[in-house]
Amino acid sequence: MTKAVVEKIAQFEGQEVLLQGWLAAKRSSGKIHFLQVRDGTGTIQCVMVKANSDEEEFAAADRCPQESSIEVKGTVRKDARSPIGFEIEATSFKIVAEAEPYPISPKDHGTAFLMEHRHLWLRSRRQHAILRIRATIVRAIRDYFDNNGFLLVDAPILTPAACEGTTTLFELDYFGEKAYLTQSGQLYNEATAAAFGKTYCFGPTFRAEKSKTRRHLMEFWMVEPEMAYADLEENMRVAEDFLVYVVGRVLEERQVELATLERDLAPLEAVKGPFPRVHYKDAVAKLQELGSDIVDGEDFGADDETVLTKLYDRPIIVHHYPTAAKAFYMKPDPDEPKYCFSMDVLAPEGYGEVIGGGQREECKEVLEAAIEAHKLPKEAFEWYLDLRRYGSVPHSGFGLGVERTVAWICGLPHIRETIPFPRMLEKITP
Q1: Does the N-terminal peptide bond of residue 430 adopt cis geometry, omega within 30 degrees of 0?
Q2: pLDDT in the model for residue 211
Q3: Which residues contact 150 (CB under 8 A, 6 or more apart)?
Q4: DSSP H or E run through 298
Q5: What share of the chain is helix, strand, coil (3-state, %, to 5)?
Q6: CATH for the stretch 118-418
Q7: How far apart, in whole angstroms, are the C-alpha atoms of residue 333 and residue 323?
Q8: How many CB atoms are located within 10 Å of the residue 372 CB?
Q9: 252 contacts 265 by C-beta, under 8 angstroms
Q10: To which CATH superfamily is domain 2-97 assigned?
Q11: Where are the domains of the chain?
């Protein structure tokens, strides 16, 4: 008897197989059971005919509750009506563990209820589709950088100081000293890029933002490439090429899952270079023209980003944000120091920033002044200043938030479904 999985069931056409999984749903005509069985790789219909089955096993299938773990033996047959093109003609049925009454029923449940049962909600077709797309995005991210000369060098999760801003830090006791959960691996990436040329880190990051918006989580995953001898122009080129690649991989590999989510593919198919590039000043002027009360020098809010992206059919790159609105390490434009060599890639359809980055300040004296202006403890950044003392070069990089990217590509209304167990304000369980 061959053990098979749904994802590869086509390989077993005409063969008798053993399928191990869970009963997702069933219906019966009395003499025939139609069993929807999922095994983690997919869902397949198993048809059990009373006349061809053991009486006790047929009765067991009839009483079997949803989400019971089961084993089904049978022959794989083609079926044009099936979403996957096959079904199993069942000849044997065994209950491994009978489930208690399942709390998630086909009726509509509120989001709060589903989040309380997130550990079970993960079993649904919708969540399967989202998290499979997420896995493809993660794999595409790694493939892009691995195949383009970047070395994976992981940054620490515990850090001695802020990277993005002191108001969003999760503070910890580190053997009597203050430490913090990382906001970003970027500063450490600058060190590894100075050692290896092109590097990236990929892992969890933490922001203690008291925000309940659809775009924010307390814990999220971010990929951050850094490149020595790369200016803002090169940084924008790589970010564009990278995003086109990731979206293309999802379109190539996850058509079934996108269909499950009823995702409109047109906006994704339009993700092709070149992306429109808009100077911050021009973006502000356009927003003001369209009725926004934004003033030059302010960062964009979510509404501003949405308005801007509606003007284009693909992601856009906004560059040269105000220096005062960005982190201390961003390099000011020598020709117009009020603005810096920064850039954000804004996704369409109201999803906003999915990539943020820019060129870093390579001059030690300028960086020291920025650290002082931001009232940061210089001693915590002495190692970072060493990167400017010993072989400093122009360098740049960016960060992409995985969860925001998943939300955009999947067309989700809220970021909470993009990660198996989201950490939100006032939500740390399950």
Answers
A1: yes
A2: 78
A3: 198, 199, 200, 225
A4: none
A5: 35, 30, 35
A6: 3.30.930.10
A7: 9
A8: 11
A9: no
A10: Nucleic acid-binding proteins (2.40.50.140)
A11: 2-97, 118-418
Q: For the chain, which residues score pLDDT lower than 70?
A: 164-167
* Residue 169 DSSP class: -
CB 204 within 8 A of CB 220: yes
Please report which helix (H) or strand (E) contains residue 192, including its range: helix 186-196
Count CA atoms closer than 13 A to 55's CA, side-chain side: 0
Sequence-distant (≥ 6) Cβ neighbours of residue 136 within 8 angstroms: 249, 250, 253, 254
Dmax over CA atoms of the chain, in Å, equals: 85
CA 124 – CA 102 distance, rounded (Å): 12
Interatomic CA distance for residues 233 and 230, integer angstroms:
8
CA angle 334, 337, 341 (to 5 degrees): 75
Residues whose CB is less than 8 angstroms from the CB of residue 252 and which lie 6 or more positions away in sequence, other chains included: none
For residue 57, which amino acid is it? Answer: E
| The pLDDT of residue 416 | 95
- In terms of DSSP bridges, do strands 69-78 and 43-49 run parallel, antiparallel, or are they unpaired? unpaired
Place of tokens 């906003």: 352
Closest CA to 129 of 22, 266, 264, 260: 260
Interval 11-62: pLDDT, tens = 999 999 999 999 999 999 889 999 999 999 999 999 999 999 999 999 999 9
* Cα-based distances in Å from 68 to 43, 54, 56, 65, 94: 14, 19, 17, 6, 10
**Alpha-carbon span 160 to 118, nearest angstrom:** 34
**DSSP states along 305-336:** HHHHHTTSSS-EEEE--BGGGS-TTBPEETTE
**pLDDT on residue 30:** 86
pLDDT of residue 165: 63
